[in-house]
Amino acid sequence: MTGDLLGRHRAVLPDWLALFYEEPIEITHGEGRHVWDAQGNRYLDFFGGILTTMTAHALPVVTKAVSEQAGRIIHSSTLYLNRPMVELAERIAQLSGIPDARVFFTTSGTEANDTALLLATTYRRSNTILAMRNSYHGRSFSAVGITGNKGWSPTSLSPLQTLYVHGGVRTRGPYAALGDGAFVDACVDDLKDLLGHTRPPAALIAEPIQGVGGFTSPPDGLYAAFRDVLRERGILWISDEVQTGWGRTGEHFWGWQAHGQNGPPDIMTFAKGIGNGVSVGGVVARAEIMNCLDANSISTFGGTQITMAAGLANLTYLLEHDLQGNARRVGGLLIERLRSAAARAPAVREVRGRGLMIGIEITRPGTDEADPETAAAVQEAARAGGLLIGKGGGHNTSSLRVAPPLSLSVAEAEEGAAILEEALRSVR
């Protein structure tokens, strides 16, 4: 019984371990773009375990690869040669766009960002980090210290000195009324001014599209303009691709490519969808940066054979079936369908995003004030209609997050949009 499981959950797990829905559901199995709960209810999944089931639930080639690898060996650690790890690293290094790239595997995006911070601060001999307002980079001690989102920052203590930069949110803040070009110029001027008041930072870390913050993003080219300023001062650029990577945005394979006019980032982190639900994260960096550590370092569980087998099978499927192209085509249809629905929903301030990474910002009608109660009500109504979606938002914002598996069909996009439209209508 779900009620019994909920009671057991509350008895042994932390109070801060949040659950969706007034009556939380237990997901027991999935197939394609659908999942089922313990009561047998079927849902169209538009959140994919927080953008992690990237390709499809129970994708046969991935389950086969995991099963076959488990029958040979599951784990040996990085202290031994590991063929699947080398093979996946080779493919990711080539896809990253970073010259002379080296890859280090972790078990999560949090750990990947933690490693990127270790590399950058060691390489630059500085513990100052530039981060974006409204950002989220994970739940480790160092990652919390660079997260510019109060709702996900349980402590002000940090081993890092963090300075926050404007630009991650296009339609809010002091520069929102400016045109795109003027917005970029103002953010660059802000960055230059900030750098005049501090000792040289190690790096700027930025999500090309801010995930937990509600799928917000700057105009294309902002981080390229930042790159000019950073490069002059030797400051590194870390692109957090935990949510934007692997073609989810449709237009690009990596989110940084929308800002790639001045070359790739120095360091890139990834996780979420590469394992299609199996715990895989990692860091890609230029060799001189990756190799700057002068002490021993290994990973017990990062790059283990079974997770690498899943990643290889999933990446191969994604590329062979052009799921990036599918995200562009189906995502374009979905976002236009949602914008049409939002035009008749006074609570929707904005529908934004690209590909299959779409945010719907909810406010009190006629204002810019966040309305988390209505956002929660829409999420509940969508679940009642057979659709699972996420939530997010930063400072005084509340957003619904739509991020289906990249194999979403046109018919499924239409079905999900219709359910969301009805959910929005039901909470007027």
Characterization of the model:
The strands form three sheets. The protein has a seven-stranded mixed β-sheet, sandwiched between helices. A four-stranded mixed β-sheet has the order 1-2-3-13. A four-stranded antiparallel β-sheet has the order 11-12-15-14, covered by helices on one side. It is globular, with a radius of gyration of 21 Å. Helix 11 packs parallel to helix 13 and helix 12 crosses helix 13. It has 13 helices and 15 strands. By secondary structure, it is of the alpha/beta class.
Any key phrases for this structure?
13 helices, alpha/beta, 428 residues, four-stranded mixed beta sheet
Strand percentage, roughly?
Answer: 15-25%
The strand order across the widest sheet is: 4-10-9-8-7-5-6
Radius of gyration: 21 Å
* SSE series: HEEEHHHEHEHEHEHEEEHHHEEHEEEH
- Structural class, from helix and strand content? alpha/beta
Q: How many β-strands, per DSSP?
A: 15
Number of H/I helices: 13
Distance from N terminus to C terminus (CA atoms, Å) equals: 33 Å
The backbone outline, from C-alpha atoms, is globular
Q: What is the overall pLDDT average? A: 96
Helical residue percent band: 25-40%
Low-confidence stretches: none
Largest sheet composition: 7 strands, mixed
Gist?
The protein has 428 residues and is an alpha/beta fold. The chain has 13 helices and 15 strands.
Topology:
Layout: H1 2-12, E1 27-31, E2 34-37, E3 42-45, H2 48-51, H3 60-70, H4 83-96, E4 101-106, H5 109-124, E5 128-132, H6 141-145, E6 161-165, H7 180-195, E7 203-206, H8 222-232, E8 236-240, E9 267-270, E10 281-286, H9 287-290, H10 305-320, H11 323-342, E11 348-354, E12 357-362, H12 372-384, E13 387-388, E14 390-392, E15 399-402, H13 410-426
Parallel strand pairs: 3-13, 5-6, 5-7, 7-8, 8-9
Antiparallel strand pairs: 1-2, 2-3, 4-10, 9-10, 11-12, 12-15, 14-15
Helix pairs in contact: 3-10, 4-10, 7-8, 11-13, 12-13
